[in-house]
């Protein structure tokens, strides 16, 4: 086995390096725990209550307001 240097993962939100102690993974993206929050209201999110759209994170309320409402406008 060749030696694999630990690759430094980048936070999807702030694009800075993420280390193991502060690492979160959601939807195939890496985040700092601190950065895993709603794009709109900055509410900290949990893995069981977040929504994701185009790389942005939303709480359920803002996801409905920002994403579902907009999609509804486009299709009508
Ligand atoms: Zn971050
Ligand atoms: Zn929100």
TrEMBL record:
Query: Is this entry keyworded Repeat?
Result: yes
Q: Where is the LIM zinc-binding domain?
A: 9-69
PROSITE patterns tied to this protein: LIM_DOMAIN_1 (PS00478), LIM_DOMAIN_2 (PS50023)
- A Pfam match is LIM
Q: Which GO terms describe its molecular function?
A: metal ion binding
InterPro entries in the record: Znf_LIM
Per UniProt, which keywords does this protein have? LIM domain, Metal-binding, Repeat, Zinc
Q: What is this protein called?
A: LIM zinc-binding domain-containing protein
